[in-house]
């Protein structure tokens, strides 16, 4: 069974940066596409960023493009989300997700993912 554990959330001022980490265990990490999603109070969970199992393909939501960067380290079974130039509207619980896929596939829909972490809170103050 796959387990995902996120960390790195916190409180930051607008314009600041945070790096989220998600540690994967239970299966072969390099066989799984990974994604980051977020959910603000009263809103649906939304896509943020995704990376293919090989790390060669990336995809971002328009709202974070140019500010957030998703990377993965297959040797450490970890996916990261570097968040720069944070805005108050980035405030949400951030979740990582995993899906077993082919090498170059990126997955951007919530319902397509098989495994989810417990989430980490990111709060951006104005």
Protein traits:
mainly beta, 50% strand, 126 residues, four-stranded antiparallel beta sheet, seven-stranded mixed beta sheet
Mean pLDDT level = 96
Task: Write the H/E string, N to C.
Answer: EEEEEEEEEEE
Indicate the multimeric state: single chain
The tally of helices reads 0
User: What structural class results from the helix and strand content?
Assistant: mainly beta
Taking Cα atoms only, what radius of gyration do you get, to the nearest Å? 13 Å
Shape: globular
Proportion in helices: under 10%
Number of strands: 11
Unreliable spans are none
- Strand % is over 45%
Gap between N and C termini, in Å?
Answer: 40 Å
Main sheet? 7 strands, mixed
What do you see in this structure?
- By secondary structure, the protein is mainly β.
- It contains no helices and eleven strands.
- The strands form two sheets. Strands 2, 4, 5, 6, 9, 10 and 11 form a seven-stranded mixed beta sheet that branches. The chain has a four-stranded antiparallel beta sheet with strand order 1-3-8-7, with no helix packed on it.
- Strand 4 and strand 5 form a beta hairpin.
- The mean pLDDT is 96.
Question: Summarize this, please?
Answer:
The chain is mainly beta. The chain has strands at 3-7, 10-13, 18-25, 32-39, 46-51, 58-60, 68-73, 78-83, 92-100, 115-116, 120-125. The radius of gyration is 13 Å and the shape is globular.
Q: Helices and strands in order, then pairings?
A:
Elements (H helix, E strand, L loop, with lengths): L2 E5 L2 E4 L4 E8 L6 E8 L6 E6 L6 E3 L7 E6 L4 E6 L8 E9 L14 E2 L3 E6 L1
Parallel strand pairs: 2-11
Antiparallel strand pairs: 1-3, 3-8, 4-5, 4-9, 5-6, 7-8, 9-10, 9-11
């Amino acid at each position: 069974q796959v387990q995902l554990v996120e960390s790195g959330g916190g409180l930051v001022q607008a314009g600041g940066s945070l790096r989220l980490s998600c540690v994967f265990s239970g299966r072969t990490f390099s066989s799984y596409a990974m994604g980051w999603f977020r959910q603000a109070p009263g809103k649906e969970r939304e896509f943020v960023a995704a990376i293919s199992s090989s790390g060669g393909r990336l995809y971002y939501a328009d709202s974070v493009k140019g500010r957030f960067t998703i990377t993965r380290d297959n040797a450490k079974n970890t996916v990261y989300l570097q968040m720069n130039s944070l805005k108050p509207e980035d405030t949400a619980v951030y979740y990582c997700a995993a899906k077993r896929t082919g090498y170059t596939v990126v997955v951007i829909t919530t319902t397509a993912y098989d495994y989810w972490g417990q989430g980490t809170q990111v709060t951006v103050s104005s």
